[in-house]
TrEMBL record:
<dbReference type="GO" id="GO:0050660">
    <property type="term" value="F:flavin adenine dinucleotide binding"/>
</dbReference>
<dbReference type="GO" id="GO:0004497">
    <property type="term" value="F:monooxygenase activity"/>
</dbReference>
<dbReference type="InterPro" id="IPR036188">
    <property type="entry name" value="FAD/NAD-bd_sf"/>
</dbReference>
<keyword id="KW-0560">Oxidoreductase</keyword>
<dbReference type="Pfam" id="PF13738">
    <property type="entry name" value="Pyr_redox_3"/>
</dbReference>
<dbReference type="InterPro" id="IPR050982">
    <property type="entry name" value="Auxin_biosynth/cation_transpt"/>
</dbReference>
<protein>
    <submittedName>
        <fullName>Portal protein</fullName>
    </submittedName>
</protein>
């Protein structure tokens, strides 16, 4: 690393690195491990106050949808029974211990405000600091900001609203008839927890019934299948990728029967409002007093001031490599190379591939 004052940017200190990894979650830490194994010089910048904070800040009862056998990062097994499903705090603890075990150079409270390029180096603006690098790996989750439909503002002010990112447990909320919008894994699990905690209240779950996943991520064959057969290099994988983007992911741990047994009422999608009440696709109005939006997140790539995005807002890449912008990489995106790319246990394979590519690129510059 080199540090110097920058006359072109008065008041800013410029820090120069060979490679900068943006994001200190599971993807960034896996990338750090692979770069270190190949003897590459790098630093990891993370916006959170501590490693694993993004996991700790999620709802209390959250467990991973993959069993512990498939939740490890490269070089360090997950410290839990292989068939158990780790809690969010166990995941956060593991990430902290992983960074410490491999002495990874993670710098917290370092939110990157802008990424651009000047001449042959990438420039990252981090508060009052300016970083430059030959290589940048964007290893951030695409779940950066809550997505809530615009018509939510038209609901009656008496209806309490929150996004799943703000949900913690039923005890933090008023016990009311509740509409959970979004029938994916998060919506289903939150709806079930509310129904079990509030047996006298009506709980509606709105959204397309995605059904259960045909295979569970709790055996080696399933993991191999979703890592190699359902990949971007096969017709089956590309078909699944398109379906996942259009319709979401089937339920991983729960079954539709579990929701019915708890008394949860399945209803169609919410399409708007009428007289302050949510309106369903079939025209039905629901008289609810609480709405939890489990409607996903936006990627939050607006800080990247580079022409690397498609019309859908996602980066154009091949297995994380941005061909038109040498030295720029993405890691941790859903279906980066296969269905498992977006899972904790899948980022290591993609990180290994990118680290080898980066090392080869570095060697060719000598």
């Amino acid at each position: 690393m080199q540090t110097s004052a920058s006359p072109q940017h008065a008041g800013l200190t410029t820090h120069s690195f060979k490679t900068i990894v943006v994001g200190g979650g599971q993807a960034g830490l896996a990338m750090g491990h692979e770069l270190a194994q190949l003897g590459q010089s790098f630093v990891i910048l993370d916006a959170q106050a501590s490693i694993g904070a993004s996991w700790r800040n999620r709802w209390n009862s959250l467990r991973l949808f993959t069993s512990a056998a498939f939740d490890a990062l490269p070089g360090l097994p997950f410290p839990a029974p292989s068939k158990s499903y780790p809690t969010k705090d166990e995941m956060a603890d593991y990430l902290e211990s992983y960074a410490a075990h491999f002495a990874l150079p993670v710098h917290c409270n370092m939110r990157v405000d802008a990424l651009s390029i000047q001449e042959d180096r990438y420039v990252l603006q981090v508060g009052e600091h300016r970083f430059t690098a030959e290589n940048v790996i964007v290893a951030m989750s695409i779940s950066q900001f809550p997505k809530i439909p615009p018509f939510a503002s038209q609901l009656d002010p008496s209806i309490v609203q929150l996004h799943s990112s703000s949900y913690r447990n039923p005890g933090k909320l008023p016990e009311r008839d509740t509409l959970v919008v979004g029938a994916g894994n998060s919506g289903a699990e939150i709806a079930l927890e509310l129904a079990q905690s509030w047996p006298t209240k009506r709980i509606w779950l709105a959204g397309r019934d995605l059904g259960p996943s045909p295979l569970k991520f709790d055996n080696p064959f399933s993991w191999w299948l979703f890592s190699h057969v359902f990949s971007v290099s096969t017709p089956l994988g590309r078909a699944l990728q398109a379906r996942k983007r259009a319709h979401g992911t089937p339920l991983g741990r729960l079954k539709p029967a579990d929701l019915s047994a708890a008394g949860i009422e399945r209803v169609p999608r919410v399409t708007g409002t009428y007289e302050g009440k949510p309106v369903l696709e079939n025209g039905q109005r629901l008289d609810c007093a609480l709405v939890i939006w489990c409607t996903g997140f936006g990627p939050g790539f607006d800080w990247i001031h580079l022409p690397v995005f498609g019309t859908d807002g996602y980066p154009i890449h091949e297995r994380g490599i941005v061909k038109d912008m040498p030295g720029l990489f993405f890691l941790g995106l859903p279906f980066l190379s296969a269905f498992t790319s977006g899972f904790v246990g899948g980022v290591g394979r993609d990180a290994h591939f990118l680290a080898k590519h980066l090392a080869t690129r570095a060697a060719s510059h000598w």
